[in-house]
Amino acid sequence: MAEPLLTLRQVRAGYGDAMVLHDVALELTEHGSLAVLGRNGVGKSTLLLTIMGYTQLRGGSIFWRGRNISKMPPHRRAREGIGWVAQEREIFPSLTLEENLTVAARPGPWDLTSIFKMFPRLAERRHNMGNQLSGGEQQMLAIARALMTNPALLLLDEPLEGLAPVIVDELSAAMKLMLSDRRIAIVLVEQHTDIALELTQDAIVLERGSVVHRAPAAALRKDTATLDRLVGLRVAGTPAHT
């Protein structure tokens, strides 16, 4: 059996004296996809930050392709092939859209040609400065810039939050295409529960920093009683079909 791409074993992590994650365990296969669901403040973003190495690991281990990376700094995890799209987007305002992409580029199948094919809206604005883009365009750029590093795993922290429905459709279609090409694995934190569960293969639900439910995403999408009990108010949506 092939080695998992990413493995977390009984991970406990947080900030300073505050423990946020409690004995979190998960596995993600090469080209796999995982939705991370839960109410606000349960540790979803902290889980992504812990995978990237930005929190204090108090227990457990993180393995990347079978290698223990628990003490590896974030910049080295990025070089190993873990990409991250933060909620804040962190676009460089004084660079053009194209410069924002090329500044992070690493060799691989994701280049300007493939990015502009996936995001035609970005191609149209390639010479615009970062601070001249709408919120939706900035989110597209943040995802595209992460792809330009040609990661094996992409961590996405609520990429659809606060966006217009047309942008939600465009980004959902792009994520669906990423996964269908089987170039990349994805861990998706998202409040648009229906979209997250339609895009991904597997799902976990966090509550108070612990995994309280695991299921195939398709099965959980149909289990409205469990979703209502563990996730509460859900944002529905239907991804665009490609």
Structural commentary:
- The protein has 242 residues and is of the alpha/beta class.
- The chain has a single domain, classed as Rossmann fold.
- 34% of the residues lie in helices and 26% in strands.
- The strands form 2 sheets. Strands 6-7-8-3-9-10 form a 6-stranded mixed β-sheet, sandwiched between helices. A 4-stranded antiparallel β-sheet has the order 2-1-4-5, with helices on one face.
- β4 and β5 form a beta hairpin.
- It is globular.
- The two termini are 32 Å apart.
Entry summary:
Helix content is 34%, strand content 26%.
- How many distinct helices? 10
Question: Could you state the CATH homologous superfamily?
Answer: P-loop containing nucleotide triphosphate hydrolases
> Which stretches are poorly predicted, pLDDT < 50 over at least 5 residues?
238-242
Q: How many individual β-strands?
A: 10
CATH architecture: 3-Layer(aba) Sandwich
Give the strand line-up of the largest sheet.
6-7-8-3-9-10
The backbone outline, from C-alpha atoms, is globular
Q: Which fold does the CATH topology refer to?
A: Rossmann fold
The H/E string reads: EEEHEEHEHHHHEHEHEEHH
Largest beta-sheet details: 6 strands, mixed
Query: What is the end-to-end distance?
Result: 32 Å
Residue-averaged pLDDT: 91
Question: At the first level of CATH, what is the class?
Answer: Alpha Beta
| Helicity, as a percent range | 25-40%
Strand content: 25-35%
Radius of gyration: 17 Å
User: Looking at the chains present, what oligomeric state does this protein adopt?
Assistant: single chain
For the record, the count of structural domains works out to: 1
- Which structural category fits the helices and strands? alpha/beta
